[in-house]
Amino acid sequence: MYLMKRFKLVLVAMTGLGIAPLIGQTPSLQTVPLSADIDVVNVRTLSDGNTLRQERKMKFYRRADGSTRLEEANRVVIVDNGAQTVTVLDPISKTTQVQAAPMASTNGRKPVAAQPQLQVAWSSLGGPKNSPKTDLGVKVIAGYSVHGIQQSTTIPADSALGNTAPITKTIQVWRSADLRLPLLTVISDPLGGTTTSRYENVSTSTPPDSSLFKVPAGYKAVPAPQSRVIASQTN
Fold this sequence. Notes:
The chain is mainly beta. It contains 1 helix and 12 strands, in the order ββββββαββββββ. The protein has one helix at about 115-125; strands at about 35-45, 50-60, 70, 75-80, 85-90, 95-100, 135-140, 145-155, 165-175, 180-190, 195-205, 220. The two termini are about 20 Å apart.
């Protein structure tokens, strides 16, 4: 899975999700606090017609400042926009890894966390940042109006992959401007199958408790690997 691949940073500012995955926002952006479930499904069809289906379910929380928490059974990722840190909790070993998030630009370009959802997700697929976009219009998902954008890129025949015919990858992102969230992301890739990342059970009635964005008592801090990159689904 591209957007939620374990320990691979597509976007720091969890975003991730998913996605497929998952997706960025500026650190100072005031946004809607919420909680939601994320369902990521990857389906691949083999040449003999056999279908492989993998599903991941996650819980997502976001504060008003854009800080996020993404929960899985064996991992929790917290992106704190105020502290500019990414914290990974391992509930099984009771360990935590904290790494500085590159929220500021050092080369005159936009920081990773500020890049648009579609651009970041598409870059993770190897597509050009400025490939043509198709406006898919507006529809309603889970009671929210969403605007869809699609981009496609084609790997030409006889590339370094050894393909004898062109390979076209496509990504669709359906984003809610009210929630500042991509409620649906669909990646179609002949090499990896179709990956769908969907936000469900979105709730804005009660802001997430502040304790969700802190390291629980009893966790041991361990060094974070330099190469870690966290996928985020916050924009």
